[in-house]
Design goal:
14 helices, 10% strand, single chain, elongated, alpha/beta
């Protein structure tokens, strides 16, 4: 069950780069349309920060990459200054686990997904040849992808590709969590039950699942260059460049029944955590993935609608 669960807990990308906001956005993609006035290059060194304030309290919001090279370097000067004296650090809700009550159901769904022999046997000759070439390069045997479900095969392939190319959705959040712990700054982070989403994969249509598999396959063939370039842009405060990261995983998972409801809940919980932090005078830090942070209906858009003052990385002077 580890590979599929890992796939569901990580955020991954697309192999080619369409415009940041497509001319005809995918209605299944809740983060397709950005709030353009928030997409601003940072004035300070290092990654870009936004602020949310009610006058008495300021929340410094760091937009994090959805996918990045493991242990990548970035200028921590601004972060270290803001961590000092912070009331708390609110982390992305990526630390997802299947609740104990959902383990049996999740395991049953996984067994239903993992069966029927090697996935490549279900493919036409063209796809099969490409897939075999990729999985061979990744060092995986045919039985590693034992499923008849193309979406499940695509998500497992995405996880394997990321592992082999040293890409992760955990950084820089993992480092920020460690630094907060070392500084004895309280941490706020939430987990969710992913058992229902595992079961929903089975209900995703064959056509949508195969479209996802095709995108992941193309991504694995293309290699990690796009993500590496976006990570370098992120580290330099180039928000537009950072947003050019690959998004295969997000678009794939968006078609799973219940995924958009889950996404809306995560955003609402992030907004609620920031609002709670605003009740204590002083300052705090929040880390939110870039797209959910800057999208229409995203975290900053919701906070602005509630009347809080939001400033961009271009407004910062210290």
């Amino acid at each position: 069950m580890g590979a599929l669960l890992a796939a569901l807990t990580l955020a991954a990308p697309a192999w080619s780069q369409p415009p940041l906001t497509p001319s005809r956005p995918d209605p299944n993609d809740p983060d397709a349309v950005l709030v353009e006035e928030l997409v601003v290059t940072a004035r300070l060194p290092g990654p870009a920060w936004w602020t949310v304030s009610n006058g008495a309290t300021t929340i410094y919001v760091l937009g994090s990459p959805s996918l990045a090279p493991k242990r990548m370097a970035w200028d921590r000067g601004v972060f270290d200054r803001r961590l000092a004296g912070a009331n708390e650090v609110i982390l992305p809700f990526q630390d997802v686990r299947v609740k104990i009550t959902g383990v049996i159901g999740a395991a049953f769904n996984f067994i239903r997904l993992r069966g029927g022999g090697p996935f490549e046997a279900t493919l036409d000759p063209g796809r099969r040849g490409r897939f075999v070439a990729v999985r061979t390069r990744l060092g995986e045997p045919p039985d590693h992808y034992s499923t008849r479900n193309p979406l499940a095969a695509g998500l497992v392939l995405a996880t394997d590709y990321r592992e082999r190319t040293s890409l992760t959705a955990a950084d820089p959040t993992k480092l920020i969590k460690l630094l907060a712990q070392r500084g004895h700054v309280p941490i706020s982070q939430k987990s969710y039950d992913l058992g229902p989403l595992m079961g929903a994969i089975i209900r995703t249509s064959q056509a949508e699942g195969m479209a996802c598999f095709d995108e992941v396959l193309a991504q694995a063939e293309a290699g990690p260059g796009v993500t590496q370039a976006a990570a370098r842009a992120w580290a330099q405060g180039d928000v537009r460049g950072a947003l050019a990261n690959e998004r295969t995983y997000e678009r794939c998972i968006a078609v799973v029944p219940g995924a958009q409801t889950f996404d809306a809940k995560v955003k609402a919980d992030q907004v609620a955590a920031i609002e709670q932090a605003l009740k204590k005078p002083g300052h705090a830090i929040a880390v939110v993935p870039l797209r959910p942070l800057l999208a229409q209906g995203g975290v900053l858009d919701q906070l602005r609608a509630k009347g809080y003052t939001v400033t961009t990385p271009g407004d910062e002077a210290q």
